[in-house]
Specification:
By secondary structure, the protein is mainly beta. About 10% of the residues lie in helices and about 45% in strands. Strand 4 and strand 5 form a beta hairpin. It is globular.
């Protein structure tokens, strides 16, 4: 049996841009992606601490070291620049493996969006 568990989480990162005219998704600085073990095109859940909005989308790789976290397309309506969000990825794994699995959790500096 497979169950879905939290694979990784970027906890409390600041939205740097909201681009309504982009095709869709969330752009994340490549340093943050690597620190959280999130891949380009991976499905993620975005939770906005400021307004309680939740959405699912996929990740686009942002410029390394930029601190960019940009909600694109319709997702841009779910957050304002400066909002603090949580980005969560999930994985389906074997039930027995899930008992000992430890997710990758990162807590970036919310002023710079740099991994700590």
């Amino acid at each position: 049996m497979l169950i879905e568990v939290v694979k990784s989480k970027i906890h409390k990162v600041k939205v740097t841009e909201a681009n309504l005219q982009y095709v869709g998704s969330i752009t994340i600085d490549e340093d943050l992606m690597e620190a959280a073990d999130i891949l380009e095109n991976e499905k993620v859940q975005v939770v906005n601490i400021n307004n309680g909005e939740r959405l699912e989308t996929y990740v686009i790789k942002g410029e390394r070291g930029s601190g960019d976290v940009c909600l694109n397309g319709p997702a841009a309506r779910k957050a304002a620049v400066g909002d603090i969000i949580i980005i969560v990825s999930y994985a389906s794994i074997d039930y027995d493996e899930a008992k000992t699995f430890k997710p990758k959790l990162i807590f970036p500096d919310t002023d710079t969006n740099k991994p700590v």
